[in-house]
Design brief:
Elements: H1 3-51, H2 55-59, E1 62-70, E2 73-77, H3 79-92, E3 95-105, E4 111-119, E5 124-134, E6 137-148
Parallel strand pairs: 1-6
Antiparallel strand pairs: 1-2, 3-4, 4-5, 5-6
């Protein structure tokens, strides 16, 4: 092989290495953006579901396990148990009013929602939701309903 052929082979190898690196960087940055939007999507789905009293959409966002704090009950539940606990609570406390007070980002890229919910029975709750990303999947990790007097 001549000197020029070796030089050409090395140049092609160098260009191929650069191309692989560029594709990797683009793929990684797209994946990071997808994760951020999925956390935002879960957050928005939770807000919409609670506003519209759509229990199934709300509980479909739960992580496994999920921490739930209600006025008379606080525990960490499997996703299946959590669905039953929240379904029972939300059927008794149907949303009449729902107002988001604050949203933002927490440590580690999690996002939170602080809201107030009024029920059809005149009861008001202060709500805190925490959405996290685990194994490239965003889900609702913490739900708190605090009774307002």
């Amino acid at each position: 092989m001549s000197y020029y052929n070796k030089l050409l082979d090395n140049r092609y190898s160098f260009l191929l290495d650069r191309l692989v690196l560029i594709v990797f960087i683009i793929t990684f940055s797209l994946n990071t953006n997808a994760q951020s939007s999925s956390i935002t999507d879960v957050k928005n789905n939770c807000i919409t579901a609670l506003k519209n009293n759509n229990i199934n959409d709300f509980i479909s966002t739960f992580s496994n396990p999920v921490d739930i704090s209600l006025p008379d009950n606080e525990n960490s539940y499997s996703k299946i148990q959590a669905k039953e606990v929240m379904k029972k609570f939300l059927l008794k406390n149907k949303t009449k009013t729902f107002k988001v007070k604050q949203t933002g980002k927490s440590t580690g890229g999690s996002e939170f929602v602080i809201a107030e919910m009024g029920t059809d029975k005149g009861i008001k709750y202060h709500i805190y939701l925490l959405i996290t990303n685990s194994n490239n999947k965003a889900s609702l990790h913490l739900v708190e309903f605090e009774l307002l007097e």
